[in-house]
Specification:
Distance between the termini: 23 Å
CATH topology of the largest domain: Jelly Rolls
Strand content: 35-45%
Mean pLDDT: 90
Number of strands: 20
Largest sheet: 9 strands, antiparallel
Order of helices and strands: EEEEEHEEEEEEEEEEEEEEE
Length: about 250
């Protein structure tokens, strides 16, 4: 077989596939149509229901970025808000930083009000009832911990079997104005992937420490991997065996 993994929606329509060399199989049983296979799901069978909430509020206050005071921030608070509104989860969201002084925020689990300059809220949350393949996502690898960090630019991890990786993330000390950092991922000593981490969720108190996230959405074959980050500001410590903090999410 010849295989590719587009991982995208194909709109309804008539499609013609042209292969670079005329060596694709066809015969009378296929009506002389080249053999082709599509694997996925019909989008109208997913049961999708979505709504965007701009500057979401609870009881007159802006929704706080964290579900619990200083913990389970971003997705955790967004998911809780969507469930409160009758949806299953949050599909997307965006932080609205440092709004607490002008617009106090409401911590959804405890009802606490955050009215300090460091309090973050949401610019929007997209709530959905869509059930899809992401329901199967889980952590494939995770070596983070809560202890003090030193710096590195290198992480190692091993996959004993192929895995579809949706998200690749690191814990990184971002400089003021810095929003991206490049990386190279090696598999068995050969370049496997080049990409860019984008600044994600941050520690509530040490605001320079934030995740760096990329979404490869591709199969990682089994093997030994080395991740090299463009700047040596990735967290590591003795609890991680001096291996840079890295997270893989997929299935």
């Amino acid at each position: 077989s010849g295989e590719d993994f587009p991982d995208k929606v194909f709109p309804k329509g008539n499609y013609v596939l042209k292969v670079g060399r005329a060596k694709q199989c066809q015969n009378s049983r296929s009506n002389h149509n080249g053999f082709v296979e599509l694997v996925g799901y019909w989008t109208d069978e997913v049961g999708k229901r979505e709504k965007i909430f701009y500057y979401p509020k609870i009881k007159g206050y802006r929704l706080d970025w964290c579900r619990i005071w200083g913990r389970d921030c971003g997705k955790g608070a967004a998911d809780a808000f969507c469930r409160l509104k009758g949806y299953t989860e949050a599909k997307s969201w965006e932080i609205d930083p440092d709004i607490g002084l002008r617009s106090p925020t409401y911590v959804i689990d405890s009802g606490q009000i955050c009215n300090q300059s460091f309090c973050d809220g949401f610019k929007y949350i997209t709530c959905t009832s869509e059930r899809k393949i992401s329901d199967a996502y889980k952590r494939i690898f995770f070596n983070w911990n809560i202890y003090a960090c030193s710096f590195t630019d290198t992480s190692h991890f091993t996959l004993s079997k192929p895995a579809y990786i949706h998200k690749l993330a690191i814990w990184y000390k971002w400089s003021p104005g810095e929003k991206t950092v490049s990386y190279v991922l090696y598999r068995n000593n050969r370049v496997f992937l080049r990409g860019v981490f984008r600044k994600g969720g941050c520690d509530r108190y040490q605001r320079m420490w934030c995740s760096g996230e990329d979404f490869p959405d591709k199969v990682f074959p089994k093997g030994n991997y080395v991740l090299k980050v463009g700047r040596a500001k990735q967290c590591q410590n003795s609890r991680s065996n001096h291996n840079g903090f890295v997270e893989l999410v997929g299935y």
